């Protein structure tokens, strides 16, 4: 039996059960692909029962109906018609997300005017795109790549946020506002697209609208600020933002050139117009900008995660992609990718487009295949179905396909609602994929319960929530911080005084053992909070367990003395219970705030420093 047979069987018992089964398939990449093949071969839209209200807004006229019919389209011809036939298909499902000027929810001339206005400010950016991609990745990678394990979904999102912040001219202090608004907006957007048909999440759309409203206020303010500074406070803020822009402009690539020397952010360029376009207020311009940003950020995040996830499905493809990433770096260390790597990314996105579903509403009764669809019906465009509905093993990843299917980003240029910023997004995506694939020892993390690789996790089959990866972190950052915080026994004054004496008189032995170890850069003890806590700070090289076990075996007697005055101490003597000692240190090891740790010489270990700068004492 096929998935379509299973759906029909479930439907005979309960339309609700059939919809739940459908949702389980749409939420998983592999299951979704199998479903699409069945529906493409069948040739008909799939009718299913939605739990969403037929009304777009609660205030719309008419009665609420919470069991509307929705049609899932997978055939390429049907989806192309829905994207281009504006006489019969409307973008009305998006309107609930914002005001009547929100670009995604517009049809006809209003949409064309906004799109043309937006596109004019995203053209002719030239060398700024790869340069901003480089800087965005470097900024986004500062925290995730401090640890052996990192979340690619988070890294991709942060890089996209940084890129948009640079491109549009936000202040660096706006990052948290931009991040929070875009997360809420993206969740609300995809709840409106697909989630509401299968699950209930009250407030998702309202929270998205409120978040976008807050960001809209900030964008309108920045446009006004760039136009004219009123008062000392605005003059000071303008200077801070301008100083940040100058930092971007001063950046030099490895060839010594300054590709951003003449870069001017989009909001500044908008503000420098003598007059706003006819019919556009400053607030409406802000709406256009927020609409552009809201779609682009998570398209970048999803595309990056989807591509790497797809490469890991086949070791041969992963090897090919990694080799091309290295070759791209050898050709141009700052930015750029080989055509072969770009082709691999496009093939991954063809199988799983970043915008997996797009909604439309019919304006009149029409027929697709042999299916009659009433006027006012919601149709859900399965973009991954359209990109698979073509000859040449469309369900198989082919490294040599080299097919930049325009439907991956909503259609060819000129098609209504084709992604206006895909020429900005893809250079950033390719740069992110390239840099991630170059990480030494890159691999998927294992699920601790099953031992299986952890794959990309998606919500509702579209929102990339988490993709845990790991790499050989010491190859790019040798050192690690240790911050052990332990409670001093009571009475505190007595035990704290004893600890001071132990450290004071044990200093010569500590010094000798640390020197002999040749993997400790710095070390110190500190009593804090009125001597109630003892803190051990060290910066060490490489593996945590090996480092701590060395302490247990070489300085065990000293730690035995220390632990006499510490609460919840491990069993002693320490050198006979090294594993328990390691567990105790691990349990009391605090992570730096925000996981931030800076090293001026990230690839240099103690032995390298000693060889370069021999000690005077030999």
Task: Write a concise synopsis of the structure shown.
With 618 residues, the protein is an alpha+beta fold.
Plain-language structure description:
By secondary structure, the protein is α+β, with helices and mostly antiparallel strands. It has 2 domains: 89-474, Cytochrome P450 (Cytochrome p450, Orthogonal Bundle), CATH 1.10.630; 478-612, Dimeric alpha+beta barrel (Alpha-Beta Plaits), CATH 3.30.70. The protein contains 21 helices and 15 strands. It has helices spanning 3-13, 15-26, 29-42, 76-84, 108-122, 128-141, 152-168, 175-193, 204-227, 231-250, 266-271, 282-311, 315-331, 339-351, 383-386, 422-437, 492-517, 544-554, 556-563, 578-588, 606-612, and strands spanning 46-49, 69-73, 89-90, 149-151, 357-362, 366-368, 371-373, 378-382, 443-444, 457-459, 463-466, 468-470, 479-487, 520-528, 533-541. A 5-stranded mixed β-sheet has the order 1-2-8-5-3. A 3-stranded antiparallel β-sheet has the order 4-12-9. Helix 1 (3-13) runs antiparallel to helix 2 (15-26), helix 7 (152-168) packs antiparallel against helix 12 and helix 18 crosses helix 20 (578-588). The longest helix is centred in the middle third of the chain and has 30 residues, at 282-311. The model has no long low-confidence stretch (mean pLDDT 88).
């Amino acid at each position: 039996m096929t998935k379509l047979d299973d759906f029909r069987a479930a439907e005979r018992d309960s339309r609700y059960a059939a919809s739940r089964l459908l949702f389980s398939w749409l939420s998983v990449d592999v299951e979704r692909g199998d479903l699409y093949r069945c529906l493409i071969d069948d040739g008909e839209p799939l009718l299913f029962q939605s739990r969403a209200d037929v009304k777009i807004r609660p205030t719309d006229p008419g009665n609420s109906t919470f069991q509307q019919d929705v049609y899932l389209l997978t055939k390429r011809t049907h989806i192309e018609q829905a994207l281009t036939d504006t006489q019969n298909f409307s973008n009305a499902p998006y309107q609930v997300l914002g005001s009547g000027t929100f670009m995604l929810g517009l049809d006809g001339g209003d949409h064309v005017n906004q799109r043309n206005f937006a596109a004019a400010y995203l053209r002719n950016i030239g060398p700024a795109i790869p340069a901003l991609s480089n800087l965005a990745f470097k900024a986004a990678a500062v925290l995730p790549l401090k640890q052996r394990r990192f979340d690619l979904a988070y890294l991709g999102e942060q890089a996209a946020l940084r890129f948009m912040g640079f491109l549009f001219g936000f202040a660096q202090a706006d990052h948290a506002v931009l991040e929070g608004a875009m997360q809420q907006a993206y969740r609300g957007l995809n709840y409106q697209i697909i989630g509401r048909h299968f699950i209930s999440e009250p407030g998702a759309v309202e929270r998205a609208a409120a978040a976008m409203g807050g960001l809209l206020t900030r964008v309108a303010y920045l446009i006004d600020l760039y136009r004219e500074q009123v008062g000392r406070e605005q003059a000071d803020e303008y200077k801070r933002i301008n100083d940040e822009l100058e930092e971007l402009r001063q950046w030099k690539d490895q060839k010594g050139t300054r590709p951003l020397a003449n870069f001017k952010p989009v909001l500044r360029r908008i503000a420098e117009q003598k007059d706003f376009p006819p019919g556009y207020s400053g607030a409406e311009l802000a709406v256009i900008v927020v609409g552009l940003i809201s779609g682009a950020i998570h398209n970048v995040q999803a595309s990056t995660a989807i591509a790497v996830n797809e490469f890991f499905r086949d070791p041969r493809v992963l090897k090919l992609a990694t080799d091309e990433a290295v070759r791209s770096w050898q050709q141009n260390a700052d930015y750029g990718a080989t055509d072969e790597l770009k082709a691999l990314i496009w093939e991954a996105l063809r199988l799983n487009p970043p915008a997996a579903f797009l909604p439309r509403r019919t304006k009149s009764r029409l027929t697709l295949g042999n299916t009659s669809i009433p006027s006012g019906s919601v149709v859900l465009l399965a973009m991954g179905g359209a990109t698979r509905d073509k000859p040449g093993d469309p369900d198989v990843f082919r490294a040599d396909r080299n097919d930049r299917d325009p439907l991956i980003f909503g259609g060819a240029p000129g098609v209504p609602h084709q992604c206006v910023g895909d020429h900005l997004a893809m250079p950033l995506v390719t740069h992110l994929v390239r840099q991630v694939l170059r990480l030494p020892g890159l691999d998927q993390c294992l699920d601790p319960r099953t031992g299986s690789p952890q794959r990309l996790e998606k919500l509702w089959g579209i929102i990339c929530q988490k993709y845990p990866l790991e790499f050989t972190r010491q190859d790019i950052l040798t050192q690690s911080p240790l911050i052990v915080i332990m409670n001093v026994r009571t009475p505190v004054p007595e035990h704290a005084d004893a600890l001071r004496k132990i450290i004071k008189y044990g200093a010569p032995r500590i010094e000798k053992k640390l020197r002999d170890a040749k993997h400790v850069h710095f070390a110190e003890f500190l009593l804090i909070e009125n001597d109630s806590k003892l803190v051990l700070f060290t910066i060490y090289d490489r593996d945590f367990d090996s480092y701590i076990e060395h302490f247990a075996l070489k300085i065990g007697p000293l730690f035995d003395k220390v632990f006499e005055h510490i609460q919840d101490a491990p069993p002693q003597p320490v050198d006979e219970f090294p594993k328990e000692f390691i567990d105790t240190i691990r349990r009391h090891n605090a992570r730096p705030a925000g996981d931030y740790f800076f090293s001026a010489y990230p690839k240099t270990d103690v032995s390298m420093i000693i060889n370069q700068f021999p000690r005077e004492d030999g």
